[in-house]
Amino acid sequence: MMRVATFDLGTNTFRVLIAEIREPGNREPVNQTRTRRLTGSRGHGITLRPIRVLRSITRLGQDLHKRKTFHPDAVKRSLAALDDFAREIRTHRVDWAGGICTAAFRTAKDGPRLLARIRKRYGWDVRIVSARQEATYAMRGIIYGLKQPREPVNREPVNRRKRDPVSGSRDHGITGSPLLVVDIGGGSTEFILCDKMRGGGSSDPPGKREHLKMLPYQTKMLRHLPINGARTAPNEGKCQAFGGIRGIQTTPLGVVRLTETHLHHDPPLLFEMRKLDEAINAALAPVERMVSSAHLTRHPSPVTRRSPLITHHSSLITSFVGTAGTVTTLAALKMKMRKYDPKKISGTRLTRRDLESLMRRLIAVPAAARLKLPGMEKGREDLILAGIAILLRCMDRFGLPALTVCDSGILEGIALSHSRNAA
Length: 423
Known about the structure:
Elements: E1 2-9, E2 13-22, E3 36-39, E4 45-57, H1 64-67, H2 72-92, E5 96-101, H3 103-107, H4 111-122, E6 125-128, H5 131-146, E7 179-184, E8 189-197, H6 206-210, E9 242-251, H7 255-262, H8 270-283, H9 285-292, E10 319-323, H10 325-334, H11 342-345, E11 349-351, H12 352-363, H13 367-371, H14 384-398, E12 402-405, H15 410-422
Parallel strand pairs: 1-5, 5-6, 7-10, 10-12
Antiparallel strand pairs: 1-2, 2-4, 3-4, 7-8, 8-9, 11-12
Helix pairs in contact: 5-15, 7-14, 8-14, 12-14
């Protein structure tokens, strides 16, 4: 058994997960009510038991697109948050602490200097990673999350809730493949394209598929992942839950960047929202090129809304999954959740009507009034409109009727990756 602390130091939010990991073959008793298990094709598995999840909205990317360096106030807020994290981590006596720095550190000229300061001050194994590596960790965590049974929001009997064809768990809302994953951050947004999900009718013969199955957290699953529109070879990127990862595209659609660039009034004016939509649509063009070059195998599902922006290739996407704070906050707003519960968040389905309704409610009031709404996390009240706009424009572009929310992502992906590397 190993106890780890993993970090995601983002443009808007700093997060840490403290968790216990048990490798296959460990016979120590496991609390089944608190432990989540990943199972491979032959029954081997790894257990991940979250102990604490800490988060602090530091807005490290404040004015970063103008200054090109970190704002002194943002650095103070960030170090204060890390001091709080360090005190908590010491009480749990972790075996390893490490993680990643994302878009803000990649963009800022003084990003490496601040990273060196953090490593020296706390002794953590934290490093700046590329957008491709960031998306790799996110995808590992998402696969982990989609394999967990969803906590029911109502009292409907378990045997009547719809079973997810991907993972065997219920109520995740994944209806077919190909699948588009969106990870909305403060400084950038990553898109991950997957094809031939298990249960979606892979065209490979059974004998050929069998030897390609592997544990979701294994490195082979994400070896040679393409970035910015490139494709994998037909048999690369195979895993148990998803048949093939076809591409990764990073875009400058961070909610902090978009808000500071386009939304200057509170609440924003109509022409500002139009400029925001235009910027998002322009940034989605490379994502559409990635989809069109992937030669996807279509497994149709009904689409309730079409747009003039939809092309032949983009209409091939049939499932849409979102992760990170913007998406989970929208799920909490939909459910009017006063106390955040990740088990109820994961698997929540946000339809286009849900997002349009939230946009109408939130755009009509200033940020201070949004903060009072049940489910709104402090520090996101001014950024949430840009996040909704990204999701709505994605739905327009790719003809998607709804989004499935996944609370797991980068933190879980780092923990699982370190577990395998340390084994």
